[in-house]
């Protein structure tokens, strides 16, 4: 079984994923717009370029995916603290690199630091409102 984080945005999915691509590298494996769906040309003009689906591999086993909400369909984005993306890099240096790049323009909750449980850990909310945890365990 694979578990892939799926994020929702309010018209910022593509911008967010361009930013995430600048951090993780790689290429999008999908980037479809609402206008490309059947009857997409009948959507409100300001919603036609919203993202129907975008995906970016961020590691060998993780595919980060997202879409934009559609206000014309009654959808409303509610940002909250009920979801985090927890990343487990292979080194302290990689943990710092990811933390520093992804947290730019966001709100740091816990700066990267050695923790009492033995891991090197930090958390933040990025500039798009997505919550992230970066956790390096030197024993694994």
Structural account:
The chain has 140 residues and is α/β, with parallel strands linked by helices. It folds into two domains: 6-70, Signal recognition particle alu RNA binding heterodimer, srp9/1 (2-Layer Sandwich), CATH 3.30.720.100; 84-136, 2,3-Dihydroxybiphenyl 1,2-Dioxygenase, domain 1, CATH 3.10.180.10. The chain is 17% helix and 32% strand. It is built from two helices and eight strands. The chain has helices at residues 13-24, 92-103, and strands at residues 6-9, 30-33, 51-57, 63-68, 84-87, 107-114, 120-125, 131-136. Strands 1-4-3-2 form a four-stranded mixed sheet, with helices on one face. A hairpin with a 5-residue loop joins β3 (51-57) and β4 (63-68). It starts with 5 loop residues before the first strand and ends with a strand.
Strand order of the largest sheet: 1-4-3-2
Record field, number of beta strands: 8
Helix and strand succession? EHEEEEHEEE
Distance between the termini: 21 Å
Low-confidence runs (pLDDT<50, min 5 residues)? Answer: none
Helix/strand layout:
Blueprint lengths: L5 E4 L3 H12 L5 E4 L17 E7 L5 E6 L15 E4 L4 H12 L3 E8 L5 E6 L5 E6 L4
Parallel strand pairs: 1-4, 5-8
Antiparallel strand pairs: 2-3, 3-4, 6-7, 7-8
